[in-house]
Design a protein that fits this description.
It contains 27 helices and 22 strands. The relative contact order is 0.12. By secondary structure, it is an alpha+beta fold.
Length: 830
């Protein structure tokens, strides 16, 4: 038998013996929880992201879209079909339709027979009639139009409208087409025709401003191959589902942060349990190491055998944890993503490999150093229990543990600041916990002379085992801090995120309001809907220069930045900043100030706009320029009216202006909108209720998933307590044996142990609560961009939990140990 085979057999026997004795149970369960927590959340995030991308594909009418102001070259469609993908084409432009003597500007879209590739069109036989669904566009010889056009031209189903050189009957009300995208604030009514009728309209001539789109859909692998071969010129924009709805992407990114932080918290708890259990396990392994060394194994061979045992334990934990994660994931998907479990592809194997990686790292980083340290102890020292002969590699072991924690941190979420702050907060909390615990332990030792005998013995136990007491207090305090932090995230931060989109958030937007309609429309909303709406001026303008330099699309390689630079902005003016905006740079102007602009922080970063830059916009037939004096942070996910650029009133007051407002329309009150449109026919109504339901659905999914993750964290917290007790089990048994030999009653032993444990729990609860509040504040203000409004009941609950749970565990340990005979106790501690 080779040396490797011999060591593998030895490691297997050691693992089987230690599992049978129960000494590895805490470490195994902690590693299983770490894997299950990480893998289940990664599976859920992957599944939710795929579900959202599938939903977003329906909002794009495809899995990928190539858009241009000229016809998309045919080679792209040929390449897509050669890869096994389906294709469809659309052409969109502004045009004028006629009905009798009335003319109306519309947004005309011509679609082919394959449209849409994803999603469905929502249609109705009449305005406000029952909605039906279709997987195709209008047939040749027909037109579909939205309700707005029916109302403006007083159309009835079947009436004919003139589109260029032809007339077509309008046979359906177009309620919604899937690829309307995030541009919900389109001003013109929409008309859809078949592409076969487009040539006859003679609307497409040289110089026509039109948007041409190639839609592509198919299997993900084929899409990846097609996209990898794309090298579109600057004039062709490639859009995927994640860009179709920026609001949904923002909501999902926030959801991913919550879930990832929760999973990381569970892993941190598991590592604390492993580190504590490893210390107690190493003590029990002293004689095993001595026997192995006596039988001829060198220190290196012994370390290899122990390392292989830990690797085998990690693989077992990974197997069990991944199986549990899959079962939990299946339950989560069935509950949180009903209806999509059968259409989504299998989760990637990388998720399970990552779980295995977590098991290997946490056990190797937190358990192996304590075991490897035993191999440096001489055999005689082990037999004489001379632990002073052990080398002190405390700093090295601490460094290995910190490195292991960094290796399993979820850096892959793409928000390094979130992970760094959570990691740094916990490391700082651990250091502060240890230092403060050391000071308190020494103070408690001095105070024991002024207490009753049983309490004096408990305080003496804390002082006599000062190092172990500090370790236990730090570990329990850090465990409580992680659980409390998770509770803060689950109850406070998530609640504040959900509060950004309350039940009465605006779901109806009214745009294209003329200035002479503002007062009348405001009065209508007050009388008919009980809404005191705010109105904001809106001016369309195109950004032409930044800091005196003309805007060049070639300067923006990022597709979204290029689209933002090329689009028309909705500008506004104001004397006061909106309450839901927050200044992040510069200053807001005084009422009499002139020539200044305020820019939203995100678009400023994308377009390279800084404080002091002069921006120039083309507005109608004039140029408007002003200096950027402030940058604002805008809460786009609250669905309030907001603008990328706001100016002082003097810059835009004399430009062509319409007004915009928003309000909440309760369900079932659709007749209000009919009366509104009849009273104000020039006003455009935009319903965003469906989009808001999607965002709320994401929030609901996150809340449900956090409940499961919180369960993992509580299980890990229980293991931390058990491991903390196990770490001092040998010394505690000897104390009880001594007291029983001296004739101490059970009550005395119980009270002494309760005093020791309750005080450790009190200190751990106090320090853990402080660490959780501090880390929660950092995350709220630096990552989630929310005001921190902590619920002080949670720290109080942490203190109570520390005293009650640790104290109760102490009573259980005392009674269990006292029931054993002296001989049995001595054997158990051997």
């Amino acid at each position: 038998m080779t040396e490797r085979a011999r060591l593998a057999l030895l490691a297997t026997r050691l693992l089987r013996r230690d599992l049978a004795s129960g000494r590895l149970l805490v470490m195994l369960l902690a590693a299983v929880i770490a894997v299950a927590s990480t893998t289940s959340i990664n599976l859920l995030v992957s599944r939710v992201e795929r579900a959202m991308l599938a939903e977003s594909s329906a909002l794009l009418a495809a899995d990928l879209a190539l858009g241009a102001s000229d016809p998309v070259p045919g080679r792209y469609a040929e390449a897509a079909r050669a890869t096994g993908l389906a294709t469809a084409h659309t052409v969109s432009m502004r045009s004028v339709v006629a009905h009798g003597d009335a003319l109306q500007l519309v947004r005309l879209k011509a679609v082919d027979d394959a449209y849409p590739l994803r999603g469905e069109l929502q249609l109705a036989e009449r305005v406000l009639g029952p909605v039906s669904f279709a997987r195709h566009g209008p047939p040749p010889g027909e037109a579909w139009a939205d309700a707005r056009l029916f109302q403006l031209l007083d159309l009835a189903p079947g009436d004919r409208i003139g589109i260029g050189d032809i007339e077509l009957p309008v046979t359906r009300v177009l309620v919604l087409e899937p690829d309307r995208g995030g541009d919900v604030f389109t001003l013109a009514p929409r008309v859809m025709i078949n592409q076969a009728d487009l040539a006859a309209t003679r609307l497409v001539v040289p110089g026509t401003r039109a948007s041409y789109t190639l839609l592509v859909s198919g299997a993900q692998g084929a899409l990846d191959r097609f996209r990898a071969g794309l090298d579109p010129p600057p004039g062709i924009a490639v859009t995927d589902p994640s860009q179709a709805r920026p609001e949904m992407r923002s909501a999902f990114d926030q959801a991913g942060r919550f879930l990832t932080l929760a999973a990381f918290a569970g892993v941190l708890l598991a590592t604390i349990g492993i580190a504590l259990a490893a210390g107690a396990y190493a003590e029990h392994h002293e004689q095993t190491v001595a026997v192995l060394r006596t039988l001829g194994l060198t220190g290196t061979e012994t370390r290899r055998a122990l390392a292989l045992e830990i690797v085998l334990l990690a693989l077992l934990a990974a197997l069990l944890g991944n199986v549990i994660a899959w079962l939990v994931h299946a339950a989560l998907v069935a509950r949180l993503l009903p209806g999509v479990t059968t259409v989504l592809a299998a989760p990637p194997t990388s998720v399970f490999l990552h779980g295995t990686w977590v098991a290997l790292v946490v056990l190797a980083g937190f358990a192996l150093p304590a075991l490897a340290r035993l191999t440096y102890l001489p055999v005689v020292g082990v037999l004489h229990r001379d632990r002073a002969a052990l080398p002190t590699h405390g700093l090295r072991a601490a460094g290995v543990m910190i490195l292991a924690t960094a290796l399993i941190a979820p850096w892959q979420v793409g928000d390094a600041r979130l992970v760094a702050l959570a990691f740094a907060g916990m490391m700082a909390a651990a250091l502060v916990l240890a230092l403060v615990a050391l000071v308190i332990v020494r103070l408690l030792g001095r105070a024991r002379a002024r207490t009753r005998m049983s309490w004096r013995f408990g305080l003496a136990s804390i002082a006599r085992r000062a190092r172990l007491s500090v370790v236990q207090t730090t570990a329990i305090g850090l465990g409580l801090a992680v659980i409390l932090l998770l509770a803060l995230v689950r109850n406070d931060l998530l609640g504040q995120w959900q509060a950004r989109l309350p039940a009465d958030a605006p779901n109806q937007f009214l745009i294209n309001i003329q200035e002479d309609e503002v007062d009348a429309l405001g009065a209508f909303l007050r009388s008919e809907a009980g809404v005191d709406a705010d109105f904001y001026p809106m001016v369309r303008g195109r950004l032409t220069a930044i800091g005196g330099r003309a805007v060049n699309l070639d300067d923006y390689p990022d597709p979204r930045s290029r689209r933002l630079a090329d689009r028309e902005f909705n500008l506004s003016w104001a004397t006061r900043m909106k309450a839901d905006n927050r200044l992040v740079g510069g200053r807001w102007w005084e009422p009499a100030t002139q020539g200044e602009m305020s820019v939203e922080q995100g678009i400023a970063e994308r377009l390279g706009i800084t404080l002091g830059d002069t921006l120039e916009f083309s507005v109608a037939d004039r140029r408007v320029s002003g200096r950027v004096t402030s940058l604002r942070e805008v809460e786009w996910d609250n669905f309030e009216v907001n603008f990328f650029v706001v100016t002082t009133p003097d810059l835009l007051r004399d430009t062509p202006t319409t007004w915009i407002t928003s309000f909440h329309l309760p369900p079932g009150d659709a007749t209000l909108m009919t009366r509104l449109v009849a009273r104000f026919p020039s006003v455009t109504v935009i319903d965003v209720d469906a989009l808001m339901r999607q965002v709320r659905q994401v929030m609901s999914r996150v809340a449900g998933a956090l409940t499961w993750v919180f369960g993992f964290a509580l299980a890990a917290g229980v293991l931390v307590l058990v491991a903390a007790v196990q770490a001092s089990q040998r010394e505690r048994v000897l104390d009880v044996v001594l007291l029983k030999t001296l004739g101490a009653a059970r009550r005395f032993v119980t009270v002494a142990t309760l005093a020791e444990f309750a005080l450790i729990g009190l200190v751990a609860g106090l320090l853990g609560s402080g660490g959780a509040v501090l880390t929660g504040w950092l995350l709220a203000t630096r990552v989630f961009d929310m005001p921190y409004l902590p619920d002080w009941r949670i720290p109080l609950a942490g203190i109570a939990a520390g005293v009650l749970t640790v104290g109760a565990l102490g009573v259980v340990v005392a009674r269990r140990t006292h029931r054993q005979s002296v001989v049995a106790s001595l054997r158990a501690s051997a």
